[in-house]
Protein 1
Amino acid sequence: MRARFYSQGEDHYKLDPDLKAILHTFAPGLPQEELSAFGKLVGEEVLEVAHHVDQDAPPRLQMHDLDGNRIDRALLSPAQKTLLEKLRPMIRPAYEGRGWPLHYAFGYLLADGGLYCILTITHQVAYALHKYAPEHEGVKRDLLYGPAFGATWMTEIQGGSDLGANRTVARREGNAYRLYQGDKYFASGAGLADYAIVTARPEGAPAGPKGLGLFLLPREVEGRLNFTVRRFKEKLATRAVPSGEVELEGSLAYPIGRLEEGIYYTLENLTVSRLANAAAAMGIAKKAHLEALFRVRRRTAFGKTLLQHDLIQHDLLEMRLRQVGGTALAFLAIQAFDQAWEERPPYSEGYHLARLLSHLAKGRTAEHASAITALAMELFGGLGFLEEYGVARWHREALITPIWEGPANIQALDMLEAILKKRAHEPLLAMLGESPRAQAEAHKILKKLQEEGPWYAKEALRALADVVTVYALEKVAAEPFPELAELYARRFLKGETLPPSAQRPELYDPWSSLS
């Protein structure tokens, strides 16, 4: 596989000194041996299996068994099934008292959108049961320790991110409910999930998002299929996770917690997956960055290696600034969530801050990942556009990160709601008090947001994210992060060009410290 990936067989944690510095800052004390072992698993097995699934063996839908019974089961490559069980332990840390940063660090290193999606939606079901439905402890254990998989089916064909438009109706039947008129149109994990959490409106509940309840939907009830999968979708990337269309008509489901709080539980779950999206976006970007770092050392053009050319050094600095900036922003948001995740409605200002940071991180990391992976393709030249090599896939994978868990417009509107209704900007400004420059910039952005409202919200999302990124980078003491923070501020906050004084290996080449 080294013919496809330069990083095949390598320890991907060892190759990433910038990640180590960021984790040391925002999650000190993580087990280095575990992270290194996981990095080796990624380099030695994940790269090969994920590429095989993407190119040759995506999941297929088997709708009937030999006797003609409807089963709607996803058929996975044996290699993917084996790998998923090796990866399953990465979803357990928070539930074993080890915190969220370790899980998200594993997610960053895994950096395969399809595989990580399967694992994320599995533990999102466990998350809801852990906090709000302890009567399903057995289901939670099967999800975390095997053999079950989970899914989160929230949106519907007619509304998408507009959850208030959902039509699925929940009709009470004893201690459970039957779900009707459900068309979960973009259902990740369809055909694979043994349990899903789904949104539905109990009969008599008000219209809009606050009328939605959250339910646990088993795949089978008394040995019979409890819902149907209409089809799997053909996707540009994330092919390892089967995504399909699920129909709910008379499906048995169990209420989670208080039904009138269903929208809050749903938004909590979205925060979990938005942080996963942020970590994965920067992990995918890093995979492309690693390939580029190998490439510029090996490829010769015009009498010298690519690494020796001025413009290549400029490109590498641009990539590194985006990479460290997005990664620091993501793990700052993860740190805030780790401190507040056990809260229940109504939430503290600490939780609202964590939610606000998740919107900033989700939106900006997706932009960085798309830019980094595109530039990596360019540095490979024509080879970067060929599917037979690995770098092209990283760009395809990165392109889902702006869309999953709500595109930038949704993140901007949710950010605006968190500011206007929850006053989440107040703890944000207090946090930024450690950096007068960042706090002053944030005040300017918030003032303009107040004046212009939704029209400016998307630009405010990006601008606030960059302010918080500078703050996060300033907190990383390891060299050369103080200078990288200044360069990030110059490039993205001020919109200025990078100065010639930054043309130094310790700035544009993260591996200069390893040599």
Protein 2
Amino acid sequence: MKRLLPILLGAALGLAAATSALAMERGGAMTFARYDDSTVIDPVYADRNPDLWMVTGLYETLLRNGPDGSIVPGLAEGYDVAADGLSIKLKLRDGLKFSDGSALTGADVVFSLDRARNPELGPWAGLLGAVDKVSADGNQVTLTLKNPDPTIVSILATFNTGIMPKAAFEKAAGANDQEKARAFFEAGPVTSGPFTMKSRMQGSSMTFERNPNYWRPGADGKPLPYLDQVDFVIIPDDATRILKLQAGEVDAAEFIPSARVGELGADPALKMELFPSTRIVYAPINTRETRKDGAKNPLADVKVRQALNYATDKSMLIKLVTFDTGKPMTSLMSAATQLHYGPEPLYPYNPEKAKQLLDEAGLGGGFEVTFTTLAGSADDATLFTALQQMWSPLGVNLKVEQVDNPTRGEKNRSGDFDIHTYGWANDVNDPAQVTGWLGYYKQRQAVGTGWNNAEFNTLFEASNVEVDPAKRKDEYKKMQEIYAEGAPLLFLFETPFAVAVSKSIEGYVQTPLGANDFSEAWRAK
């Protein structure tokens, strides 16, 4: 049975030793201020970040994403992928239990994974689309695949494959799976993760309580979590969340606006955490030969797209929008994404190079571009104003079109735009998700840009069945190089997850995928 990445496990042990050196303590509670409430924390039906980012607090997966996004053991102590890539075997740990004390068995794993891959249920079934059958024999679980899938290991560490109790779920009220899921959640679910749900007042508050049967040991050798409970309060307004934190009414607050990061970082009672993330801010460029109205599209010329990228001062945008908390994009994916390749920021500011490219494209005399933004977004307004000033010396007449979010999405799908604002954060610890979304033509026409590169498409398809890690790494390197040269986006910046935490709290982490991890959080007494 293959053991998981000894180097990463060694790093984890090093972190545990460091935590022990801090004399961490058990017991107590922490209060966490959230911007929005969860609707239903279910591995299959979670489809909003307030749900997605809480799933693994209640439901453990066979493998886990560590705090830095690496894959580490979970309910399974190891795994073995067949040489032909057509099956994966995992061994469950001995003595696993759910929060109610019932045994966690292979039957629960089969039930959970079959549910997760059912296309008639939640939106994430496609992540397990390569799975033909899930079976269990004692502690041995086998996934038989229809075709090799190099993402399968990462998917088994993804929220939608959280393990649920078959018997308890099936006893829940409801005529179908969705009704049972809601009833199961609202009644206080039986869980496999570090916490159970003690109470909940919809739209107001929620409390997680320590799962007494959780398996994973802490630095002191006793099972996690350290805290007895985590109390969540819902405070949509940024300023109010911060006021509550400064007053000591809450111990942590998420989604700190960039403009407040410096202030809170200087507060002696607080720690201003900027957790590495997979979030990128970019602007899709319509690369089609003609605009929606049939007029010739100047952005179809790659030299024009490259010129606009060179004419964009990313350092200035990072200062204006993120208050220097962001960093320039170096690839189509964030630097925290597996198989990222980007030795330096894409298209460093060079207005002279931009002018040269526009002259070569025959557009030295200038042209008009519409920039579609979200109405009411201060960040989008700042981006437009800055780009308008940066591009004006090149003769680019940038006009703004303000729309709501549904309209922006529809314009993206229909190709009725020139350039528009957008953002992304990975849900899966594998580059296939973001790469398919942004670059693969057959998936939403490369994030609506219409960019259609045959070599890129072929490489992406090959990478989705390539089980040799070295070959897959080479495929992704080449794809990122092709995409950078094709410039179907304005490559803007990456941003961290900004969370302000009381100095009395240690060990809370928000992972690069956004998950809130309280399993190793503790309060100094």
